[in-house]
Amino acid sequence: MEKVINCFKKRPDAVARLICFPWAGGGSIHYARWGNVLNSSIEVFAVKLPGRESRAKEPFFQNMQQIVDEVISVLLPVMKEKPFALFGHSFGAFTSFAVADALKKLHNIEPVHIFLSGASAPYSEMRINTPKRSELSDEDFLRWMSSVGGTPPELLSNPEVLKLFLPALKADLHVVESYKCNKPETPFLSCPVSCFDGKEDIPHDLQAWKDATTGDFTVRMFDGAHFYLKDSANEKVLLDYITKQLETSEMDYL
């Protein structure tokens, strides 16, 4: 478990778990520290992918199935143990969706809530028509990333550090670009789905996520660009919202 999950604050008595998936090239620290911020009813599990942090020497995953298989093999017992929710930003939104899809199809379990941020649904026209970027040269790749504002500003200001992150960024982007997913003919989930985005980010087809569930569907927009959630004021609003939703779902679950 420790290899795949970063948990800053273990809460065995928590009523629900929030399982968070990193953005492209990202690690687990940003989400793991949410465990120190959220109240004691929620335990935060931040997923660690190969090729970064304590798994830096492991090869990157090549496709979405590898991520899904690993996450489910490690987390299935705890997912059956108590209510859980999924959160993913950008690349993490795709991995959250793919994990939820597999959990429902293979094990007939689903989250009490899914929180998806900064990404079009994988089966939406907007996503399918997105040009492939993972095979660009490093120079062109960086130019593109600067133009869309999809990079943490602290990385863009330090080219040497950015070069260290490029392999992970490209590897994750390759996973997304090779991930094929048909639009659900009928919704396969019944849990609520909440979508978030920055108002200044490039447009995403958030509404298309609605096709995945018969549950409540909500879209909330925040001031800021792609990494709106790194702003402390936005993060507070986001975490307050997540807490409220999970505490409400706990009542329903009970």
Automatic annotation (TrEMBL):
Tell me the GO molecular function terms.
fatty acyl-[ACP] hydrolase activity
Q: Where is the signal peptide?
A: none
Entry's EC annotation: 3.1.2.14
The first-level EC class reads hydrolase
Question: Which keywords appear in this protein's UniProt record, sorted alphabetically?
Answer: Fatty acid biosynthesis, Fatty acid metabolism, Hydrolase, Lipid biosynthesis, Lipid metabolism
Reaction(s) this enzyme catalyzes, per UniProt: (9Z)-octadecenoyl-[ACP] + H2O = (9Z)-octadecenoate + holo-[ACP] + H(+)
Record domain Thioesterase: where: 17-238
GO BP, one example? medium-chain fatty acid biosynthetic process
Coiled-coil regions, chain positions: none
> What's one Pfam family here?
Thioesterase
Which domain of life does the protein's organism represent?
Eukaryota
Q: Extract the SUPFAM superfamilies matched here.
A: alpha/beta-Hydrolases
Q: Which family does it belong to?
A: Belongs to the thioesterase family.
PANTHER family hit by this protein? S-ACYL FATTY ACID SYNTHASE THIOESTERASE, MEDIUM CHAIN, THIOESTERASE
Q: Indicate what this protein is called per its UniProt record.
A: S-acyl fatty acid synthase thioesterase, medium chain
Organism from which the protein derives: Sphaeramia orbicularis
